[in-house]
Recover the amino acids of this structure.
């Protein structure tokens, strides 16, 4: 049986999520065409923007290693036990539902994922949305579409990792660090993209395929859609489903 939380806790966490979404929607945009392609409020307060993942020792290997430890994604008994504990930590109301604001708070304060990137909000937003969608496809019939439930929490861990991977790949291609990829940047990155397992025979055709809004640039959202469909593998590890 699906346990519905008290209305009071749903209302408070929903209000917090609405505030979070508005902060994302109204933050500084950097040549991006969607509300999720934006900087976070704390970046505005620092007076500068640095959207790059934080490399350690000149590469991303340390980031991959840290994410694998912090995000219990697999179906093993060890990861299942870790997820149970982690979900309870993310769920201060104890109602069995996580709002987007609670996910953001847990990712920063418990998992400290903001140590690995200065722009965590788009990663969490996309992971949250995709885990909800996938949860419904896997048989979760609950109509509380604004919340991640315990049954969807493993998918949230999977997609936070996956979107970190996409963000790092996108940043490698976006050499100008303006959060959009030009045709020139894309063509220069083809050898790297092919190392990630995606063969590109016609650069112009591939760019047009990714640039779905025809804006002449590839945005993060467009890149993610394409990269997921192509099974791009930037971390060199088998994907966790």
């Amino acid at each position: 049986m699906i346990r519905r939380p008290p209305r009071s806790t749903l209302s408070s966490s929903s209000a917090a999520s609405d505030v979070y979404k508005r902060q994302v929607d109204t933050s500084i945009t950097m040549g991006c065409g969607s509300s999720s392609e934006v900087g976070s409020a704390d970046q505005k307060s620092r007076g500068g923007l640095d959207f790059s993942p934080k490399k350690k020792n000149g590469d991303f290997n340390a980031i991959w290693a840290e994410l694998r430890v912090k995000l219990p994604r697999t179906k093993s008994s060890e990861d299942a036990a870790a997820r149970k504990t982690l979900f309870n930590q993310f769920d201060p109301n104890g109602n069995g539902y996580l709002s987007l604001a609670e996910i953001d708070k847990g990712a920063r304060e418990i998992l400290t994922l903001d140590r690995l990137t200065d722009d965590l909000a788009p990663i969490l937003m996309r992971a949250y949305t995709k885990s909800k969608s996938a949860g419904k496809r896997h048989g979760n019939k609950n109509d509380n579409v604004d919340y991640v439930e315990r049954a969807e929490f493993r998918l949230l861990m999977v997609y936070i990792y996956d979107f970190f991977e996409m963000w790092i790949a996108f940043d490698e291609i976006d050499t100008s660090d303006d959060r959009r990829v030009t045709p020139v940047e894309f063509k220069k990155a083809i050898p790297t993209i092919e190392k990630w397992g995606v063969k590109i025979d016609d650069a112009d055709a591939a760019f047009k395929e990714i640039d779905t809004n025809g804006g002449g640039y590839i945005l993060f959202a467009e890149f993610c859609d394409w990269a997921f469909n192509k099974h791009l593998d930037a971390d060199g590890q088998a994907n966790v489903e």
About this structure: The mean pLDDT is 78. The chain is about 55% helix and 0% strand. The longest strand covers residues 97-98.
